[in-house]
Amino acid sequence: MPTVLRKEYEDDKYGILDRCYRKITFCDTKTGEIYTDIMEIHVLELGKLPPEDQNEEGIIRWMRFLNAKSRKELKEMAKQDEYFGEAYEELERLSADEKKRLEYETRLKYKRDKYAQLHYATRIGREEGERIGREEGQNEMIRSMWKAGISEEQIASIAQKTVEEVRKLCK
User: Fold this and answer.
1) Which of 69, 57, 70 has the alpha carbon at shortest distance from 16?
2) Is 169 buried (19+), middle (13-18) or exposed (0-12) by CB count in 10 A?
3) Which band of pLDDT confidence, cut at 50, 70 and 90, is reported for residue 2?
4) Using 50, 70 and 90 to split pLDDT, how confident is the model at 55?
5) What DSSP element (H or E) covers 41?
6) b/e for 120-146, b at 16 or more Cβ within 10 A?
7) Strands 21-25, 40-44: parallel, antiparallel or unpaired by DSSP?
8) Virtual torsion, Cα 163, 164, 167, 171, nearest 10 deg
9) Is the pLDDT of residue 111 over 90?
10) Cα separations (Å) of 57 from 6, 11, 22, 39, 44?
11) Collapsing DSSP states into helix, strand and coil, what is residue 14?
């Protein structure tokens, strides 16, 4: 696995970013020259955010927004910053879509469950019908053999029934 080099965020006025934020770029190992700013990895360690500071800017404020514990906290931040307001509106839109998606999935699950129940009941009904049909067919055959003069003992042996069962069917 190739080695990934880190370049620390340069605008860290308060020393906070060193603990909770990392910006990873691709660079030349000899010169330190960054190859491109198109491909970067930003690591935000929200659990390491220090207590809030009055003069916070940029990435730290966004980290606080992402780390908000409640809708109320998000709403308050959205009132203070136009970009947070846009982000909050997008979160609200996605939440509404999430509710619609969950409703759709619930309806779909209900329909699938109903289909599975119907399919199961149909299969059980078909199996029961086939069993009853085989029994009726065998009983008709037993009656036909009895009418043809075959002895009750022979019929019982052929049909794998007791002589009493054959007598009961034929009378």
Assistant:
1) 57
2) middle
3) very low
4) low
5) strand 40-44
6) eeeeeeeeeeeeeeeeeeebeebeebb
7) antiparallel
8) -170
9) yes
10) 22, 10, 16, 23, 15
11) coil
Which of 133, 161, 130 has the alpha carbon at shortest distance from 145? 161
Structure tokens at 74: 């998000």
Number of H helices and E strands in the chain, helices first, is 6, 2
pLDDT at position 54 is 61
Higher pLDDT, 18 or 23: 23
**Residue bearing tokens 């990895």:** 41
pLDDT in tens, 82-92: 999 999 998 88
Check residue 101 and give its pLDDT.
Answer: 79
Which of 97 and 82 is assigned the larger pLDDT? 82
For 96, the token pair is 């509404």
What pLDDT, on the 0 to 100 scale, is given for residue 79?
Answer: 92
User: Which element (helix H / strand E) includes 129?
Assistant: helix 82-147
One-letter amino acid of 49: L
With CA atoms as reference, report the closest residue to 144 among 59, 29, 136, 15.
136
**Site of tokens 């982000």:** 87
CB 170 within 8 A of CB 152: yes
The amino acid at residue 117 is Q
Q: Name the one residue in this structure whose structure tokens are 């794998």.
A: 160
